[in-house]
């Protein structure tokens, strides 16, 4: 059984206005994982991460990191964590290296760590350039370099690809995967980019309106996706086809198309044969397996 690095137990949080933000949140981030914390804007992701990092005062519930309660062991626990919450906090008039030196002094990290983190995030050649001249993707990587100065065991990243162009998204994604595989970092990363998480995360937590709707490994999520695969059929008369197919329960009819649950290739062939025998022209039969975004919509609607 995997060791759990971050655990929240029945975590609740309510704004002063009385608006509830988190509802009985039970996160479990396994050691060695890239845990994708997914949800739309306003779902409670950033609030959850701020509570985990001790940036907000906990109202109700428990938070354990490395098996220790942050209520009683916050300082030693936080020394083992690196974090990037919301926008990068870097000084644009300083070079990349000067930014790192400034943060190194405040964290007490060794001087040689600057060169190491610049190499890790791919900014060695840009170390002497003013941060104001960096692209948004480079600024994000510099901010991640700052979070890596203390060589943390756990890295917490809040929407690290938000606002980036496609090349910046790819660079950040590959950096996160490298930090996990090559540097051995456990990474808790929030995002609303569902397809992006599908490309990098080993574990997934889906939050909606402050409640955790799904939590598990990517393999478990993929099995859930497989169970919800659909056959989409385009025919000459979808309503007539749906009425005739009592053996194949139709889930939805849309214009010239209808959908039924996918069971097997053989059953798909039987469906096609039944339609042709009833005098219905079949233009196209395709298996549409749900991607992560469609699955998210299904889960949140439930």
Automatic annotation (TrEMBL):
<dbReference type="GO" id="GO:0016887">
    <property type="term" value="F:ATP hydrolysis activity"/>
</dbReference>
<keyword id="KW-0813">Transport</keyword>
<dbReference type="Pfam" id="PF00005">
    <property type="entry name" value="ABC_tran"/>
</dbReference>
<feature type="domain" description="ABC transporter">
    <location>
        <begin position="6"/>
        <end position="234"/>
    </location>
</feature>
<dbReference type="GO" id="GO:0005524">
    <property type="term" value="F:ATP binding"/>
</dbReference>
<dbReference type="InterPro" id="IPR027417">
    <property type="entry name" value="P-loop_NTPase"/>
</dbReference>
<dbReference type="InterPro" id="IPR017871">
    <property type="entry name" value="ABC_transporter-like_CS"/>
</dbReference>
<keyword id="KW-0547">Nucleotide-binding</keyword>
<dbReference type="InterPro" id="IPR003439">
    <property type="entry name" value="ABC_transporter-like_ATP-bd"/>
</dbReference>
<dbReference type="InterPro" id="IPR003593">
    <property type="entry name" value="AAA+_ATPase"/>
</dbReference>
<comment type="similarity">
    <text>Belongs to the ABC transporter superfamily.</text>
</comment>
<protein>
    <submittedName>
        <fullName>ABC-2 type transport system ATP-binding protein</fullName>
    </submittedName>
</protein>
<keyword id="KW-0067">ATP-binding</keyword>
């Amino acid at each position: 059984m995997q060791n759990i690095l971050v655990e929240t137990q029945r975590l609740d949080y309510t704004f002063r206005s009385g608006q509830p933000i988190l509802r009985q949140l039970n996160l479990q981030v396994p050691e060695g994982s890239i845990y994708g914390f997914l949800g739309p804007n306003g779902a409670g992701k950033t609030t959850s991460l701020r509570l985990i990092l001790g940036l907000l005062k906990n109202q109700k519930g428990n938070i354990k990191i490395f098996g220790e309660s942050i209520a009683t062991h916050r300082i030693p626990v936080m020394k083992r964590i690196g974090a990037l919450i919301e926008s990068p906090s870097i000084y644009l008039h300083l070079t990349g290296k000067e930014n790192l030196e400034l943060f190194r002094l405040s964290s007490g990290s060794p001087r040689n760590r600057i060169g190491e983190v610049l190499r890790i995030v791919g900014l060695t050649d840009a170390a002497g350039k003013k941060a104001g001249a960096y692209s948004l993707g480079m600024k994000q990587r510099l901010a991640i370099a700052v979070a890596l100065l203390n060589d943390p065991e756990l890295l917490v990243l809040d929407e690290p690809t938000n606002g980036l162009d496609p090349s910046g998204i790819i660079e950040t994604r590959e950096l996160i995967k490298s930090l996990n595989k090559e540097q051995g970092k456990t990474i808790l990363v929030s995002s609303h980019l569902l397809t992006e998480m599908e490309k990098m995360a080993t574990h997934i937590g889906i939050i909606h309106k402050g409640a955790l709707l799904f939590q598990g490994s990517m393999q478990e999520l993929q099995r859930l996706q497989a169970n919800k695969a659909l056959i989409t059929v385009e025919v000459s008369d979808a309503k007539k086809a749906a009425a005739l197919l009592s053996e194949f329960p139709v889930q939805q009819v849309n214009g010239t198309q209808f959908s039924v649950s996918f069971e097997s290739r053989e059953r798909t062939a039987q469906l096609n044969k039944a339609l042709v025998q009833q005098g219905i022209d079949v233009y196209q039969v395709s298996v549409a397996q749900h991607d992560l975004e469609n699955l998210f919509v299904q889960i949140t609607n439930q």
